[in-house]
Amino acid sequence: MSDPVSRSFFDGYYPKARRWLRGRRWWWWALIGLGFTLLLPLAFVLSVAWGAWGPLPDRAELANIQHHTASELYSADGALLGKYFIENRTQVDFEDIAPVLVDALVATEDARFYEHSGVDTRSLMRVAFKSVLLRDESSGGGSTLSQQLAKNLYPRARRAWWYLPVAKVREMLIARRLESVYSKEELLTLYLNTVPFGESVFGIGAATERFFSCAPAELRPEEAAVLVGMLKATTAYNPRRNPERSQARRNVVLDQMVVNGYLESATADSLKALPLSLRYRNVTRSDGPAPYFRQEIAQEIQSWLDAHPAEDGHTYNLYTDGLRIHTTLDSRLQGYAEAAVSKHMASLQKDFFQHWEGRKLWDLNDPGLVRAYQQSPRYRSLKAAGKTEAEILEIFQQPRAMRVWSWEGEVEKEMSPMDSLMYYLSFLQAGFLAMEPGTGYVRAWVGGINYQHFQYDHVTAQRQVGSTFKPIVYAAALEGGMDPCQYFPNEQTVYTDYEDWSPGNADGKYGGYYSLRGGLTHSVNTISAAVIMSIGVDQAVTFARRFGFTHELPQSPSLVLGTADLTLKEMVGAYSAFANRGERTLPVYLTRIEDRQGQVIVEFPVAPERVRVMPDYVADMMADMLQSVVDSGTASRLRRVYKLPGELGGKTGTTQNQTDGWFIGINPKLVAGAWVGGADRKVRFRSLRLGQGANTALPIYGLFMQQVMGDRRYRDIRQASFQDPGASSLMAMDCPAFT
């Protein structure tokens, strides 16, 4: 109930005011509405700023932005071997970016970039109209570069259209904070290192490499305009997929540069008249030099990083932390090695297909084919779909058009999936490794013939080593006091104590006597058997273990003929002792790891880790005997065919039924080995002439060393000399190889 005194007072003294207010009640509502109109947006902005719609990054977080960056692997001579990445991104500094690219970016994406502090108020109304009223999520035309950077760093969640105002305000607030943390140059650098260009390419460094095969500093104006033009829609304006659209968009960018004073009109007209020109290069994980090496050491690098966290406690990630890994590989020697493998294996594969022409190499019940069949993605997919074995086999036997790899490139063929399995299984594989015997530095590593299609690394694969093991047993004999000129009868003998083991010679020839030196020079099996029986199997095995073999050595006299399954890496490491005067040097391939700022995380010891495995005089005599293999023995085609100069030693190897072919060559400065064979041991030549190591593996070494010896940068290898064994040792070896 109202107060009668107050009411009478009001009625008596303010009758006109009351009537006036009663007639203009809409003003109150207008004032209230205006208050809400002003306060609600402010309250909305404050709610976003205070984290009601999700937390915002603070300045400390923004100052320490670490986006995923590819780690890079480098050779000893500074060549980029490859990258490890989840997002293909390379960090680029502002001074390494072409100024014309920055001009094109600012002119097109944010003409008032240098004038605002993160938000361009002149564009707010237009953006609000298009995004909110028209619900056009792709509009974004009013976003500054700082706002776009905020969007790239903190992508929008996929929500309903009404969330767009929240996202826009978040980006504005983050943009303002970014501007308070970074300078304009730093913002441009961060933006260009962050922005996506499609095709799983992130940042300007990877983009220039992909589309123009150059560094960002080397971009021409018309190329810069193409890349900036892509930012509006990376697929629609992709210059490879949509060249006409890309060229039109490029010209728009050039016009914007004229409008904003970054380019003269006449210059822009001349650039717009140019055709769209790309130097496109999509380097996949299987492309580039040393793909097998890159893959082999990736796990080793990450294991080391896991065991050695950073000072702040976080564990480095090889695929996201932008590390720079330095190796011992020599990019030129790696190139020579890969070229040698490709040239020889293309020719050898042609011989192989001709050799088996008209004959059946595979049967559906062959274990190797069955294994490949059941491990194929097609088989597993059909099995998961509930198909029976009979149904899957029927599908695999239905011919269809497909593209298959060949040494001449990819070719179209009409074949069944089963035929394609047989086709790929029929390729001969190869491995090659070269290292310096003095330092252990691995200089070249080729694990196979084509990483995209054959990813198994044959440098680290175990295979029977054949006669390449003989020098180790011969060295044991010399250390035990055997005379290099001791003669053995060339006759096939049955060793009853070893299950009637009776090794024969590969050429089937017998008679006469070979000296110890002659038996090695001509790789005579009967002589090698007599040598190991003379020194004893146990003594031979004990001596061989000094060479660092990590795999099992058979306790059998057949060891001398190479029945042990060892790796090319192990054998090349073992032969370093013959070139290094009795000291085996452990292979080394990592030298240094740096973080993304170039700070050294670890520097691996550069001093070689050596282990003496035999006296120096024994190694000197073995080096001389191995030279005789090259000069007049089973490896003499290195002189006759490849005309290799300089001091070289080596040993060929061929396993039973020509399943594996080997050659390991030594020089005082470089030891290198090659292996050739099928991934499945059924893949082999049927004749010794074609399948022996001198024909399958040795040519890879020959072609490689031709390039090395002809390169003046490696004249130290050509001019290197083995240590003279000494007068007494030379006299002890001065005897006919055969009588």
Task: Write structural notes for this entry.
- This protein has 739 residues and is an alpha+beta fold.
- The chain folds into 4 domains: 4-49; 88-272, Penicillin binding protein transpeptidase fold (Orthogonal Bundle); 362-425, no CATH class; 428-732, Beta-lactamase (3-Layer(aba) Sandwich).
- 45% of the residues lie in helices and 12% in strands.
- The chain has 31 helices and 18 strands.
- The protein has a 5-stranded mixed β-sheet with strand order 2-1-3-13-14, covered by helices on one side. A 5-stranded antiparallel β-sheet has the order 7-6-18-17-16, sandwiched between helices.
- Strand 6 and strand 7 (442-446) form a beta hairpin.
- The protein is elongated.
- It starts with a helix and ends in a 7-residue tail after the last helix.
- 40% of the residues are buried.
- The mean pLDDT is 88.
Please state how the strands of the largest beta sheet are arranged side by side. 2-1-3-13-14
CATH architecture of the largest domain: 3-Layer(aba) Sandwich
Helical fraction equals 40-55%
Low-confidence stretches: none
What can be said about this structure in brief?
With 739 residues, the protein is an alpha+beta fold.
List the helices and strands and how they pair.
Layout: H1 4-13, H2 15-23, H3 25-49, H4 59-62, E1 71-74, E2 80-84, H5 99-109, H6 124-133, H7 145-153, H8 164-181, H9 184-194, H10 203-212, H11 221-230, H12 243-259, H13 265-272, H14 291-307, E3 324-327, H15 331-356, H16 367-375, H17 377-384, H18 389-396, E4 400-404, E5 411-415, H19 417-425, E6 428-435, E7 442-446, E8 462-464, H20 470-479, E9 487-489, E10 513-515, H21 516-521, H22 525-535, H23 537-545, E11 565-567, H24 568-579, E12 583-585, E13 590-594, E14 600-603, E15 610-612, H25 616-632, H26 637-640, E16 649-654, E17 660-667, E18 670-678, H27 688-691, H28 693-696, H29 698-710, H30 715-719, H31 727-732
Helix pairs in contact: 5-11, 5-12, 7-8, 7-9, 11-12, 12-13, 15-29, 16-19, 20-22, 20-23, 20-25
